[in-house]
Amino acid sequence: MRVQRDGRRVTVTVTADGDENTVSHAGAALLGEIADRVGLTGALSGGLVGLRVRRGGHDPGRVVRDLAVMLADGGDALCDLRALRDQPVLFGRVASDSTAWRVIDDVCEVGLLDALRAARATARERAFELGARPAGRS
């Protein structure tokens, strides 16, 4: 599987021959792209707008999105963000473990779990509007 990333668009080409352009975690990159397209990343950013952001720092909504992608990709510890961070062609700039920890801590300390739930609900509704309903739901 080859993935080329130019801006926010991800182009995936599936081939039977692996070469130096072969990358791992291409499916995870697609999850991040879907999160962006259905508005999850934007809704997370909007819901977490009150959190401190250092000059030139990472958007807290994007950090949470990257954490969700990491979990969906099989990660089970904060240090597993490295799998995303090590492939900037696919994932762009990914926050350090300490930055991600600060975002998690701030979300809990400021009491923004409801903001995360609202962002998820907004994205789910948008995905449903686009036809991504689970089987059996109308």
Describe this protein's structure:
By secondary structure, the protein is mostly helical. It contains seven helices and two strands, in the order ββααααααα. Helices cover 52% and strands 7% of the residues. The protein has a two-stranded antiparallel sheet with strand order 1-2. The longest helix is centred in the C-terminal third of the chain and has 17 residues. The chain starts with a strand and ends in a 9-residue tail after the last helix.
Instruction: Give me the number of helical elements.
Output: 7
Mean pLDDT: 84
Give, in order, the helices and strands. Answer: EEHHHHHHH
- Shape designation: globular
Low-pLDDT segments: 1-6
| Rg computed from alpha carbons, rounded to a whole number of angstroms | 16 Å
Quote the beta fraction. 5-15%
- Terminal CA distance reads 34 Å
Q: Which structural class should the secondary elements be placed in?
A: mainly alpha
Outline the secondary-structure elements.
Blueprint: E1 2-6, E2 9-13, H1 26-37, H2 40-47, H3 60-72, H4 82-85, H5 88-91, H6 97-110, H7 113-129
Antiparallel strand pairs: 1-2
Entry keywords:
2 strands, 52% helix, mainly alpha, 138 residues, two-stranded antiparallel sheet
Précis, in short:
This protein has seven helices and two strands.
